[in-house]
Amino acid sequence: MKMTRRDFLRLSSAAAAACGVTLLPAQKADAASEIQTLLEEAYLYTFPLVLVDATKTVSTNAKTPSANRAPVNQFIHARKLLDASSRTVVSPNVDTIYTQAWLDVSAEPQIYVVPETDRFFNVQVLDAWTNTAAVLEAPGAYAIAYSGWEGTLPEGVRRIDVPTRTVWTIARIMLSGPDDLPNVAALQSRMQLMPLSAYPAGPDAAPEGSYSPENDFVPVEKVLAMTPQEFFDTANRLMETDPPAEADAPLLRSLAALSVGPGERFDASVLGPLGGLRWKRMLLQLKSSLRAQAARYARQMGQWTYYGDPIGDFGTAYDYRTMVALMGLGANTTDVAIYPRTSTDSTGADLTGKKTYTLHFDALPPTVGTGFWSVTAYGEDNFLIDNPISRYCVNDRSGLHRNPDGSIDVTLSKDAPEDTTNWLPVSDEKFHLFLRIYKPDWTALDSFPPPVIRVK
């Protein structure tokens, strides 16, 4: 009896015997090993797609727009900086104000109008797989369209093609402090979003969305808690409307043995009697294995590490794409920003709130144009750290005191120092830092890195 690869993986010993096929011990071991490999490849490949969908579900779970949710094709205008209670996206940025929108471009393009401004402002346009399709900076009207759409645009409207029908837009607007919030709100009021059929007059009224209590959850926790059946049923469904890239075809041919792909119907029995154990073991090892696999994309900056190309536009770097989705969904490409990270001090010891540190800047992070920088502290869960003064980062607008030689020392500690001007609060457990540099000056970055020095 001739068996296909899918048949071979599906046949248990009893089923094989019933078909007149005897699987030798080595064949059983090979099949189990191949199932595990394919399971991991399938999960890493589809994880960002499923996480984006979960994030969209939470973010659009609203009848009308608010500061953190809005129906599809409507703006979510944040009106204040995020804080320790913000748990929708891991590693949130707290020195810019976000305006987000979840678009459905199935029927027609959505027109996005970018206003003119003299501050850092850009709009990242992501597809459903977390790849950056475009970054909008120049003022004007843009038609965000599914790449298969055929139609005519009004004069002066620039077309932005996205390869999926689900689109996530993230506008980042630099904020210079609480007193600057009205200026940011005025800028947000000049942003426009509407269907092509309503341009330029605008829609008569934005349609009302819907709210369901069961759609209130933390997206990453929801996805990590899914069973294999739930996860791959979701992935297969999403791939129907948000299709894989052409470059994914070789991998999808392999994953067909697990019935993973657009139009496939996943059957958890293919994982065998130990499938549940394999699944739990994979999830337990996920973060550590991803870091090990993604190490080849890491770039050193002193004791700091940042992830370089192809971040934000991943191609076939599927493990890298999933690691970034877990650590910070919606990462920019390196021409827009880099995010150096450290979880150790200058001696290599883990950072912990049981100790006190100095972050020493001989020179400030180099940027160009409207670029800026910040340092933000996060707990082990990758969320902001609650603290008595609600300070989550220091940046180039923090009014930090300088030393006589012009350098700057930032205190990292759980307890407040006598002078809190240069204090960045941390947790009493392990923590890590992100140094965000927007519009980095690549000609000056090599001589820059600031050390984190333990205070004895």
Automatic annotation (TrEMBL):
It comes from the Bacteria. Keywords: Signal. The keyword 4Fe-4S does not apply. Residues 1-31 form the signal peptide. Residues 337-441 form the DUF1214 domain. Pfam families: DUF1214 (PF06742), DUF1254 (PF06863). The keyword Signal applies. InterPro entries: DUF1214, DUF1214_C_sf, DUF1254, DUF1254_sf, TAT_signal, TAT_signal_bac_arc. Residues 72-195 form the DUF1254 domain. NCBIfam families: TAT_signal_seq (TIGR01409). This is DUF1254 domain-containing protein.
